[in-house]
Amino acid sequence: MVWPCPLPVDAYVAAGREVEFPRPACPACRAPMVLWAGYWRHVRAAGRCRKIFVPRLRCGCCRVSHALLPAFVLAWRLDVAETVGAVIAQVAGGVCGVRPAAARAGVPYTTARGWVRRFCVRAGELGTAFAALAVELGGEPVVPRPAADPRGFALAAIGAAFGAAAGLPGWLAVGCWRFASSVSGGRLIAANTGSPYLIVGTRRFMPPVPP
């Protein structure tokens, strides 16, 4: 599970185990969940690797535990969502190729290439899903059409969905790529994904926690 954390990475790191986070209902049965330990993992932001604490919550009915990732974390990725998103936006938006985008982000070329390739594979699916989400949240239909430019369409759709969500309390401060991470359950560029509507598309908003 991913919660729309508005905290800067440094603030989240400094908070350690004391970081404030929401207590969402169980995604399976909607019963309340309780804190169930947690674990430490690494993230890389601005070229520096940090250790962050990821809490786990447990459902008393299902007896299943869920990790609660902050939205700046993408599942199975070391780099924060903003770094990944910046590279994808530059390449998919036609600003530059992968190599200069990777250099600007301070990440290995092969790493950035993997992000872009995965985004391209999922571009049609992501574009359609986020475009529908934008309309559901009261936004305008997205152009260009997907057949002409799948990457550009997906990028525009993510921006449109975030623009529509930004009118809701707390979401503007989260930022576009944390928003995309939140609604995709951290699986924006994962190999195996379900619906990208894990939070927002069913109107089950998990509100950001104020910094």
Task: Give an overview of the whole structure.
This protein has 211 residues and is of the alpha+beta class. It has 7 helices and 5 strands, in the order βαββββαααααα. The strands form 2 sheets. A 3-stranded antiparallel sheet has the order 2-3-4, covered by helices on one side. A hairpin with a 5-residue loop joins β3 (48-59) and β4 (65-67). It starts with a strand and ends in a 28-residue tail after the last helix. The model is unreliable at 195-203 (pLDDT under 50).
Keywords:
single chain; 211 residues; alpha+beta; three-stranded antiparallel beta sheet; two-stranded parallel sheet; 7 helices; globular
Which H/E pattern describes the elements?
Answer: EHEEEEHHHHHH
Give the end-to-end Cα distance, rounded to a whole number of Å. Answer: 20 Å
| Percentage of residues assigned to helices | 25-40%
Tell me the Rg in angstroms.
17 Å
Q: Please state the overall shape, judged from the principal axes of the Cα atoms.
A: globular
Oligomer: single chain
Give the strand order of the largest sheet, numbering strands 1, 2, ... along the chain.
2-3-4
The average pLDDT value, as a whole number, equals 87
Quantity of strands, as a count = 5
The percent range for strand residues is: 15-25%
**Spans with pLDDT under 50 lasting ≥5 residues?**
195-203
Query: How would a crystallographer describe the biggest sheet?
Result: 3 strands, antiparallel
